[in-house]
Design goal:
With about 250 residues, the chain is of the alpha+beta class. About 25% of the residues lie in helices and about 35% in strands. The radius of gyration is 23 Å and the shape is elongated.
């Protein structure tokens, strides 16, 4: 194959992709069958099959049991804004992170104690097996699942305090910074790392997506005087949301 020349299956996939993008194959239209692709492009069954696999992996088409493969309706990405965790009166932490009062944010959560896994222990700078409070969240924007979050807090910090359970007690739902301040732990720094990976089956099921489609993961850790006091994984469907950061200029 000459340098720079695409394999046949990518050329076929590229042409079909363009037809999807320009509307020649609109949402809910059945994708040409493998035999039709073979005839139309003059390629083998293997090439036709691989081209269809590419489109499916890109999330442009979906298989329907007993019916065929159809063009998916492509959502218009919404902005998921993160703005430095500045407290605002009468605003939930989730709505603060959206930085958009038009979005109505709600969430469901569940907390339980567990021993820290090696990866969580490394992030919290504690020993593996030390007790942490793990809290799982499903966040919704206008009723639609928008983000999953799993957070871990060392019980050496919050244990036997009014803020041990993030979503219960006098500061339920008020966010890490305010909850920690209530027990004289002053959060002064936050680190966020953003990466992408294929979504796990349980994640995409909760978010209303397709297993294997990409998700964005925000790995967040709050610090107080250099000590990690909370760490979390935030998972967002990459085809429906963009993460925007508002950084104050000092």
């Amino acid at each position: 194959m000459p340098f720079g020349e695409q394999p046949a299956y990518l050329r076929v996939a590229g042409d079909l992709r363009q037809k999807i993008v320009d509307g020649s194959l609109p949402p809910h239209t059945r994708l040409p069958s493998q035999a039709r692709i073979r005839q139309q492009y003059g390629v083998s069954d293997t090439v036709a099959l691989e081209a269809r696999k590419v489109l499916m992996a890109e999330g442009l088409v979906e298989g329907r049991s007993g019916s065929g493969t159809y063009v998916r309706e492509r959502p218009v990405p919404r902005r998921l804004a993160r703005s430095g965790y500045q407290p605002e009166d009468e605003s939930t932490p989730f709505r603060q992170e959206q930085a958009d009062e038009r979005i109505k944010g709600t969430w469901e959560s569940c907390s339980e104690q567990e021993g820290a896994s090696p990866s969580v222990a490394e992030r919290l700078e504690i020993e593996p097996g030390e007790r942490v409070m793990r809290t799982r969240y499903v966040y919704r924007a206008d009723g639609e699942p928008a983000m999953l979050s799993t957070s871990w807090e060392p019980l050496t910090i919050t244990g036997r305090t009014p803020v041990m359970l993030p979503e219960e007690g006098p500061l339920a739902g008020r966010g890490v910074v305010e909850r920690m301040a209530a027990i004289d732990v002053i959060v002064d720094n936050v680190l966020e790392e953003v990466c992408a990976r294929p979504g796990l089956a349980e994640e995409t099921a909760a978010l209303g997506g397709v297993p294997g489609h990409p998700v964005m993961v925000v790995i967040r850790t709050f610090f107080a005087s250099g000590r990690p006091v909370e760490t979390a994984d935030l998972v967002v469907p990459a085809d429906r949301y963009r993460i925007a950061y508002h950084m104050p200029v000092r």
